[in-house]
Amino acid sequence: MAEADFEFVPGPRPSTVRIVFRGFWDEAVVQRYRQALRERAIQRGASAPVGKVLLDFRDCETQSQAVIDAMAQILVDYAHDVEGYGVVLPGSTLFKLQTKRLMTPTGAAIFEDEEKAAAWLSS
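RE: above sequence
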């Protein structure tokens, strides 16, 4: 059985979450992700902000420009609900560059080390 394209993992504090991204996405996966975010927002109350969100791209592949553009729009759409973004970078050099470019407008904390990322999410 294949792993999900994304997974929400509760963080060490109630207001934190790690989102694990996997594989190569297409528009259908982006839409499923967008829907999952909507459902989570409804569950917690649309006006309740999230503390820190750690985006874990280690198991994700280099994405098409259309997917990167869609992800950038999602970040903008939810920016008012998030205290801060952190990112665990992927191994691929090209995807590292894509990820850094994607996250620049968010002021995200960027991590190549899992331990430092986990410490940031816990702080």
